[in-house]
Amino acid sequence: MGFMTFKNLSKEKQERILEAAQKEFSRVPFSQTLISNIVRDAKIPRGSFYQYFDDPAQLFSILLFHLYGKEAKPLSVYLERHAFDLLSSLKAKFADTLGKIQEQNRDFFITNILAVMVKNPGLAMPPLLSSKIDPEARVIMTKQIKNEKPQEMIALTEKLTSLCLFGYLASPMDPASAKNEYNRYLDLMYATSDLPRRKNEITANII
Fold first, then answer.
1. Which domain holds residue 58?
2. Confidence band (pLDDT; 50, 70, 90) for 194?
3. Is residue 94 classed exposed, middle or buried when 0-12, 13-18 and 19+ CB atoms within 10 A define those classes?
């Protein structure tokens, strides 16, 4: 209900609230953010906050969709761009994801993304922050993976991507280092013929 009320606000007012939210969510860890600062900077009555949002986490989710909602491209797009080379496509998609996140690297903002995702697992998050592989790409991968259990490889690829992304959000490092780490584990995973036995060994050392 609150979200629809927010969506019915003028674009100028929405932008003002989201700018105030981004400022506050960048200032301190999420648990220390203050609604009073957001309503002051947005120039809205405090009572209006709960007319627009259920809680600060919902506002953060809306802000993430505002920042990243149009940035995510499915893996199938990368496969087409990279001549259907699976590893090149996965690496390019991960690199683009880190690049988009890094654009918002302001003090606590990146680590607060992870804090909200972990504490609110049912909260909507933009596709950019998901490691889920789209159905079209899954079909292509199933044909390409030289393994008796391609669906297991796809699931492990999603897990690897998620773990590396969460590791980056937990402790933002130089994006180049994060990309190199992801690429190294990806190469190891797809080069390992005894994957079923070693999958826990591979993922346990990521973060």
1. 2-67
2. low
3. buried
